[in-house]
Please model this.
Amino acid sequence: MKNNYLFVLLFFTLFSSILLFSCGGSEEEPTPDPVDTNPCSSPPTLSLTSESTGCSSNTGSITATGAGGTGALTYKLGNGDFQSSNLFENLAAGEYTVTVKDSEGCTKESQATVENADAPTVSLAFQNADCDSENGKITVTATGGSGNFQYKIDGGVFQNSNVFENLTAKEYTITVKDSENCEATAQATLKTGINYTNNIASIINTNCAISGCHSGNQSPNLSTFEGVSQSSSRVFARASARSMPPASSGLELTDAEIKALECWIGDGKPEN
Model:
């Protein structure tokens, strides 16, 4: 009887172990709560102000203002080293990244742009030049910029005077420079005032657009403004070579008339 009891007890223990294993009855360890690995839940804040630089000098600056975070704040510009000063000087024009860091290594970065100082603005007043004369004049007015201005015309040297005189009719480039070496340019075209109706038509009609010549009987037709304008380069070249009008006609353009043709073409061939 005692042996039977032991057998039943052994069988029950073995059966319970198998049943517990097969049903996954072992208890699992509880999953621990995640650990906060980001200590920078309240990083510092950062604001930037910048001062412009001269056009040909590195005089710009950035001031960084940090707040919050933990402990003392340090600052760096771009890939430089952190420093206690929040001021970065002697900067050229461009965009910069500034980073602030607190004592726990928490950082905040922001961008600032250092701009060139405002260049001067230029306006021009001019007096046209007579044909084949050097009596043109350009007066320059500059505003804005920094300090005193200097002026130059085309590839010349800078001068203190804002007036350029004794100019012929053509296009000019005026450059203004301020004390920061910031430059601005403007173009002026001096003309002679010669036009087809008042100056050129009589020359052509008297010497070229005559019966049996370029009055419509042969090409080019120089009896109209359009015809003269389209053929102006050819007319001027032949007139300069003294082949128009032909010697056989007994007619000849004077040097002043040939120059008038050149000035008219230079002015853009205005009709009136």
Remarks:
- The chain is about 20% helix and 30% strand.
- Residues 221 and 227 are 6 Å apart (CA to CA).
